User: What shape does this take?
Amino acid sequence: MTNQYYPVNGAGLGLRRENLDDMLEAMQQGTLAPVNFMEVAPENWINVGGSFGKKFSQFTEQYDFVCHGLSLSIGSPSPLDEDLVKDIGCFMQNHSIKHYSEHLTYCSDDGHLYDLLPIPFTEEAVHYVAARIRRVQDILQQEISMENASYYTPAPGQEMQEIDFINAVLDEADCGLLLDVNNIYVNSVNHNYDAIDFLKQLPAQRIRYAHIAGHYNEADDLLVDTHGADVVDPVWDILEQAYRHFGVFPTLLERDFNIPPPGELLNEVKQIADAQQKMAARSAGGLTR
Assistant: This one.
């Protein structure tokens, strides 16, 4: 599935400090076979030295890596944190990291908040956010990707639908898309829209890689994006539909807490790899639709 648009390939897994030693042991034993690439939040690793830094370097020497940021706050009314962007650029260069993505949200004003909040779906917000994304790309001298975010109530003043806002930002910023499959499912339940219809309106040419994750069922009509549980069947089904519609793209398993042993994580990574191989075989046989 090598593609000029994809910075990495295959099935991926997020690397977390909580299970760093378990993952290192699995790597040394050669049992991380389903994993083709890894992802970290750069804020958790910038300027980290000592034993953690040495262990991290063992992974970056063996695997392709991408970064998924937590605190860029691209929609914030506060000035862009250009020092953070420069630090991320140095971190990526030092570890040969292939790509940087962030959330299409904001998480700060005078100080940092404890959640990722939705940006108002307005024309003004499109222009504002796109200009900030372009500035980040100018500093890094490379394209970045924005992730379609989960949200639980629209920001005030909404003028556009979520899909139209996302597409307008991607187009005006001329950036990539980190396609979060679980977020599509969560939002489709919480805001009562058709997940597959939403999926098919995203721009294939901007997809750089994807996330798949678990969530928490607060109620029948309220799902919470937690990354703390196994991926459910409806989310796997959306991923399969995405492969059918767009072709196979790099896909990474996110698990941020309630992290099981590596063997259980790798079962889900293998499920991604199996779905990719199945769809690649269908494509080779002319059965993509």
In short: The chain has a mean pLDDT of 91.
